[in-house]
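Summary of Year 1 activities. Much of the first year was spent building the evaluation harness for sequence design. The harness presents a backbone, in tokenized form, and records the residue chosen at every position. We chose the following record to illustrate the format because it has been used consistently in internal testing since the harness was completed.
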């Protein structure tokens, strides 16, 4: 079923025709209560939707569309453990991983909470043994450097969270990440490591991921060359469901922490994949992170659509993507701790909703997932904000900020907030030619100094960046992505688009590795690149 065929979609299209000429300035002038009416709060997250090109009538129509697409029923199906990932015949239960209320959640008639709690308890015990020095490296030294080797969801989530929560790290602990199969990546990381105090986490559900296992092999060779082959069991653990392969690698069975096929990689940081986070910030802070996730999960599950933060954020994105034809969204965190948050959301959103067929397998003729990009403020202001302010593209922006800084530099934090507020005001209301004329600006320069305004933004706020507020923030975006996937009628939980490149790489690698210029069975343009590689070794 194509969403564009629905009566509610056609109603929205009709409403857009008359609404598109309205400006933010007009919307604020016509409704003095607009800021209050379009501000919502839940699970420690405060969102100001008022600087967006919509009003209550548009919101009502978007919610009617969500109801016609049965968003509430499909949301409940996810929480109840139904196999909503149709193409892989899997449940989608990242919400179970942070189910702090511990209410039963069933898959195939079996409550999954006991096994989740069992793995969590094992992870907590293991973390305690590392922190108190009970678990030591081969030479008897305490393990203080964690190196997570993974890729995609096994890297981006833990990397983003550990960087974001570095003010909460356990004393003496360091955390590093290797993902790229480029040998420069692991080489640079290993240069900074002491083999006697380094613990490697191999994060791969199947323990066959090409990039991860290639990097794991290099790490193993590096360690054993310095400490001997019997050091592997003291310095490596596996985050995997493939116990046999992990044991063959040299990791003891009790040091293999599993997760399940109903945990998608990009939603896995609260599973065993989050062990690096747990080791870095400790059990108490990790539980706070889970609590933040759970609070937003419960809000998404129970709040009316009109008050539901992820739903409203998702519907707003549909409005811009499909009616205003805005093809990208800028994620602009005004906190350097969230430097990796835009990259994390790139995978979360673009891998989930970058689809071109419906749930029924029909080709789609409307826009689905937008391009997600961004950079922390104020760095972005001196880079790409020029395009957002005065370029020809409409780019909705999510501005993210925290009222209280993590470090005691309040004066500089006020400077950050001044920029945070000013940029949104400038985007919304701009500066017209008459104002510049009154100020005596050279008439020749007025066209260059005029800002059209009417460029939308959303302010997403919390009191302070803490493990709890970060959990709520991540879950907010997860459920926004879910909402949009339902509206566009795509499967947000598979990622078949990454498979073809992997398949072709496995055919090309033997040719590159053998150094034999036999290219008859290789596609012509690829053969040209292979030939360049082979002749320049």
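For this record, the design step produced the sequence shown next.
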């Amino acid at each position: 079923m194509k969403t564009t065929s629905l009566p509610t979609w056609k109603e929205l299209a009709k409403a857009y025709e008359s609404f598109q000429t309205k400006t933010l300035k007009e919307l604020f002038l016509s409704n003095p209560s607009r800021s209050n009416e379009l501000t919502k709060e839940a699970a420690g997250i405060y969102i100001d939707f008022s600087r967006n090109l919509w009003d209550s009538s548009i919101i009502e129509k978007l919610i009617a569309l969500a109801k016609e697409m049965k968003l509430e029923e499909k949301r409940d199906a996810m929480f109840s453990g139904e196999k909503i990932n149709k193409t892989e015949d899997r449940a989608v239960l990242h919400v179970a991983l942070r189910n702090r209320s511990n209410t039963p959640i069933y898959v195939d008639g079996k409550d999954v909470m006991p096994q989740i709690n069992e793995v969590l308890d094992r992870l907590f015990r293991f973390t305690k043994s590392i922190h108190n020095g009970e678990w030591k490296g081969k030479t008897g030294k305490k393990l203080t450097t964690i190196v997570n080797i993974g890729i995609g969801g096994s890297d981006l989530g833990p990397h983003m969270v550990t960087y974001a929560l570095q003010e909460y790290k356990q004393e003496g602990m360091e955390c590093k990440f290797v993902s790229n199969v480029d040998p420069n990546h692991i080489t640079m990381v290993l240069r900074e490591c002491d083999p006697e105090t380094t613990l490697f986490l191999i994060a791969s559900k199947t323990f066959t991921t090409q990039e991860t296992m290639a990097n794991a092999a290099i790490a193993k060779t590096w360690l054993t060359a310095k400490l001997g082959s019997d050091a592997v069991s003291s310095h490596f653990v596996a985050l995997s469901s493939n116990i046999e392969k992990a044991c063959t690698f040299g990791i003891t069975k009790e040091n293999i922490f599993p997760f399940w096929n109903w945990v998608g990689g990009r939603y896995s940081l609260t599973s065993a994949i989050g062990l690096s986070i747990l080791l870095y910030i400790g059990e108490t802070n990790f539980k706070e992170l889970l609590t933040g996730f759970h609070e937003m999960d419960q809000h998404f599950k129970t709040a009316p659509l009109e008050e539901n933060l992820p739903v409203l954020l998702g519907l707003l994105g549909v409005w811009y993507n499909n009616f205003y034809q805005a093809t990208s969204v800028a994620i602009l965190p005004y906190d350097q701790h969230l430097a990796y948050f835009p990259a994390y959301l790139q995978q979360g959103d673009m891998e989930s909703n970058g689809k071109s067929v419906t749930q029924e397998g029909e080709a789609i003729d409307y826009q689905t997932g937008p391009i997600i990009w961004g950079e922390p403020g104020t760095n972005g202001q001196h880079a790409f904000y020029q395009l957002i302010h005065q370029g020809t593209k409409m780019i909705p922006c999510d501005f993210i900020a925290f009222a209280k800084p993590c470090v005691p530099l309040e004066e500089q934090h006020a400077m950050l907030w001044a920029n945070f507020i000013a940029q949104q005001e400038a985007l919304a209301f701009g500066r017209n030619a008459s104002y510049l004329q009154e100020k005596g600006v050279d008439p020749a320069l007025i066209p260059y100094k005029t800002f059209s305004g009417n460029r939308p933004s959303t302010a997403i706020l919390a009191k302070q960046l803490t493990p709890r507020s970060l959990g709520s923030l991540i879950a907010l975006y997860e459920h926004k992505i879910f909402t949009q996937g339902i509206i566009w009628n795509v499967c947000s939980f598979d990622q078949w688009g990454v498979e073809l490149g992997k398949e072709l790489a496995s055919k090309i690698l033997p040719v590159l590795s053998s150094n034999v210029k036999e290219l008859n069975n290789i596609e012509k343009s690829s053969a040209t690149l292979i030939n360049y590689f082979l002749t320049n070794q």
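The mean pLDDT is 95. Quantitative recovery figures across the full test set are reported in Table 2.
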